[in-house]
Amino acid sequence: MSENNVKNKGFLALNAGSSSLKFALYVATQDNPVMVGNCERIGSGGTVKLKGASGEALDLPENCDLQNHQAAMEVVIASLNLHFPEIEVAAAGHRVVHGGDAYDGPVMLTPEVLKNIESFSKLAPLHQPHNLSGIYAAMEYFPEIPQLVCFDTAFHRTQEFENKAFAIPYELYEKGIMRYGFHGLSYDYINSEIARIAPELHQGKVVVAHLGNGTSLCAIDNGKSKATTMGFTVLDGLPMGTRCGQIDPGVLLHLLESEGYSVSELSRMLYYESGLLGLSGGLSNDMRTLNEAGTEEGQRAIRYFVNKVRSGISTMAATMQGVDLIVFTAGIGENSAEIRRLVCEGLGWIGVDFDNERNTEGEGQRLISTDDSRVKVMVIPTDEELVIARAARELVGQRAAVA
Ligand code: ADP
Fold it and tell me: Binding residues for substrate, per the UniProt record (predicted)?
């Protein structure tokens, strides 16, 4: 990258979810954002959180009404104007969940790319429209700057047929009914961190456990995604806060054919009423609450979750015919020492020599297995916004270099 081209420039990373808009402002080539914000509960009251470079709370702009994503984008602009009026935003980067089979890396937003993203909406109806509303809003408020797009699916485009396909008629595969995999920005970041802190492990076989509200695993072999647990949609694989994870498709047929479920009722159940929430009989989708409740309802959900994470890690390792490093990341993976312990204590047979003192006493990025453990275990906090900002810097640098 040509560093001169990005000096004094700001790069805005935008991550629009169904009811939230996370944003982070980076300056020049620095990896530490000067401002991080989160507009939560868009459309239903809404709250805005704003932090500076050291995590200190920053003053909020006067108007923080969040009636829709456009309004949230106005809060972003007002926050920039309030705290960093001197920074010229050179590019805005967006997280987009689905890039289909078309993109294996970040791209500048062009009318054709926008059309493709819109066409992939039918593959991710519950996520893509919100990503798009973030893009439309940014195009309206920053018409003059380049917008780029980072796809969650892109990191997994290195996977081979046997890990991408479903065993259904091949013509459906040709029509795009295949595993795409998600959480790609998070895996991309973790992969880059492993390369930085442990290059010898980066060349080996790594299983990353992204355990948040959405959860998935990824087998990364020599720096490339080989397999992942999420599939055609973000429903497959591990149980999540409210999503079911892996399920016998016969159950779905039974509910439709014999239990009178409509398609929309089934969809609501699988996306919003299942996972930890469903398993705990409606107690909570939140791992902290389940842990603290100390009830059998909470404990059975945790047992199911731990069992699936542990067996999923074993499957990922088998796919790579070995494992050298297991990484925990995202809300649960980074913060719950108890879940990490429960998962890892069942992985002794695979070569994990877990160190619970390191697990409970340390903080942030660290080793939580013994030094001699055949399979190393680490916690690495993820940073999806930084992946977006780095891509924005790179593309703006390249454009300036050829201009
Ligand atoms: P999202 O997928 O929405 O980005 P996060 O990565 O923020 O989600 O993860 C949210 C999950 O992390 C919740 O289940 C929350 O309870 C869990 N979590 C956060 N902190 C802790 C903690 N200290 N102990 C247990 N679980 C935690």
Answer: 95
* Rounded alpha-carbon distances, angstroms, from residue 204 to 222, 241, 353, 376: 5, 31, 18, 11
> For all residues of the chain together, what is the average pLDDT?
93
Is 139 in the same domain as 219?
no
In angstroms, the CA 56 to CA 340 distance is 29
The three-class DSSP label of residue 337 is helix
The count of C-alpha atoms lying within 13 angstroms of the C-alpha of 269, restricted to the half-sphere facing its C-beta, is 13
Q: Is 101 a catalytic residue?
A: no
- For 24, phi and psi rounded to 5 degrees? -145, 140
Ligand 1: nearest atom to the Cα of 241: 14
Residue 1 has pLDDT above 50, yes or no: no
| Distant-in-sequence, close-in-space partners of 116: CB < 8 Å, separation ≥ 6 | 99, 100, 102
Report, in angstroms and rounded to the nearest whole number, the Rg of the chain calculated over CA atoms.
21
CATH code assigned at 231: 3.30.420.40
Q: Name the token pair of 310.
A: 């542990």
Rounded CA gap, 310 and 225, in Å?
Answer: 19
223 and 143 assigned to the same domain: no
Do 199 and 134 fall into the same domain? no
Task: Write phi, then psi, for 249 (nearest 5 degrees).
Answer: -60, -20
Q: How remote is the CA of residue 281 from the centroid of ligand 1, in Å? A: 19
Residue 8 — pLDDT band, cuts 50, 70, 90?
Answer: confident
Residue pLDDT, tens place only, 184-203: 999 999 999 999 999 999 99
> 20: CA distance to ligand 1 center in Å?
16
Mean of pLDDT values over 107-114: 95
| Pairing outcome for strands 215-221 and 205-211 | antiparallel
Range of the domain at 97: 3-151
Q: Give the count of domains, the chain.
A: 2
Co-location of 213 and 255 in the same domain: yes
Residue 134 lies in a domain: yes
What pTM did the predictor assign?
0.93
- Range of lowest pLDDT (119-133, 241-255, 331-345): 119-133
Q: Do 188 and 132 share a structural domain?
A: no
Mutate to test the pocket of ligand 1, among 335, 359, 382, 383 (most ligand atoms within 8 A of CB): 335
Biggest alpha carbon–alpha carbon distance for the chain: 65
